[in-house]
Amino acid sequence: MALIILAHPNYAQSVANRAVINGLQGSGLDLEIRPIAELYSNFQIDVAAEQQALLRHQTIVFQYPFYWYNMPAILKQWFDCVFTYGFAYGSTGSQLKGKNFVASFTVGAPEREYHTLGEHHFPVAEFCKNLAQTAYYAQMNFVPPFWFHGTSPALYSADEIQAKARGQAAQLAAKLQALEAA
């Protein structure tokens, strides 16, 4: 069973992340989904509950929209509170050792804008180094992230976004099945 840390700050209005989650839920996988923005709208994370959820699963997926080249504030707060010394790192912090760390996110702008000469100057993979380092520091297995471009409702129709999201969900579901079988 995989754990999904859903970190969309306005999930009710989401097109892309909602379609990814719906696709995962329809995949037949056994999932636990924790919508942290809903659970902790005041940013007061229940550390014990979140750590217990992590301990129940071998694979942890972080699903979120890519905001300002990073994760939403609620997910950063979640990491700051939950990945503590003595739990996720440190001399006695090996509780997450060997667990799979999977980031899955949506990017509003088109892919062509994410390169050295584009508007955003760097490929999206360059913005994922903090994710990799977090996984490595917690002794987790870093799985290369999943993402897709073109989720801005100002640039793309809901049908276009949902089609891309269904593709992302199918790829992610296949990866989760492989990880769980390993």
Helices and strands, with pairings:
Blueprint: E1 2-6, H1 16-25, E2 31-35, H2 36-39, H3 47-55, E3 59-65, H4 73-82, E4 100-107, H5 129-137, E5 141-149, H6 158-181
Parallel strand pairs: 1-2, 1-3, 3-4, 4-5
Helix pairs in contact: 1-6
Task: Please give the domain count.
Answer: 1
How many β-strand runs?
5
Oligomer: single chain
CATH superfamily: Flavodoxin domain
Please describe the biggest sheet, giving its number of strands, its sense, and whether it closes into a barrel: 5 strands, parallel
Strands of the widest sheet, in order across it, are 2-1-3-4-5
Structure characterization notes:
This protein has 182 residues and is α/β, with parallel strands linked by helices. The chain has one domain (2-181): 3-Layer(aba) Sandwich (Rossmann fold). 36% of the residues lie in helices and 19% in strands. The chain has helices at residues 16-25, 36-39, 47-55, 73-82, 129-137, 158-181; strands at residues 2-6, 31-35, 59-65, 100-107, 141-149. A five-stranded parallel beta sheet has the order 2-1-3-4-5, with helices on both faces. Helix 1 packs across helix 6. The radius of gyration is 16 Å and the shape is globular. Residues 3-171 form the Flavodoxin-like fold domain. One of its GO terms (molecular function) is NAD(P)H dehydrogenase (quinone) activity.
